[in-house]
Amino acid sequence: MPDTALNVTPHLSIPESELVERFVRASGPGGQNINKVSTAVELRFDVARSPSLPEPVRTRLLAKRDRRLTEEGVLVIDAQRFRTQDRNRQDARERLAAFIATGLPVPKSRIATKPTRASKIRRLDGKRARSDIKRGRSGSHSWD
């Protein structure tokens, strides 16, 4: 294990001690190799209790509603794209870094605006036109 920490940005890194890796057998095609070798990686990272994450980043990540997050706030990443354990391990770490990076930017706060007078008129004109079309469909028909 050459790296002692997972570097997300130059200012943020996750120590090796916070990552839990489990090597399991991958599913899918692969013949004998897949039945004998545990190449798939299950990487777990406790987002809710990680001392490395700044509080605002943790809050944004937990609010994401990602299916990989458990109810306890643990992110579980399964990596089995590649044939080797080392490459799957690298892939899982890259995906974890990408997930954490999505929580770094602070979202812009929305400034509430009122619709312009012209846009209100356009909306009502459209509704009126649609109403006229629908009204034209009902009533007596010439072929009756």
From TrEMBL:
Signal peptide span: none
Pfam families registered for this protein in UniProt: RF-1
Molecular function as annotated in GO: peptidyl-tRNA hydrolase activity
Annotated spans, Disordered: 109-144
EC number: 3.1.1.29
InterPro entries: Pep_chain_release_fac_I
Alphabetical list of SUPFAM superfamilies matching this protein: Peptidyl-tRNA hydrolase domain-like (SSF110916)
Basic and acidic residues bias: start-end ranges: 122-135
Keywords attached to this entry: Hydrolase
NCBIfam families, per the entry: PRK09256.1
Name of the protein: Peptidyl-tRNA hydrolase ArfB
Organism of provenance: Ralstonia psammae
Gene giving rise to this polypeptide: arfB
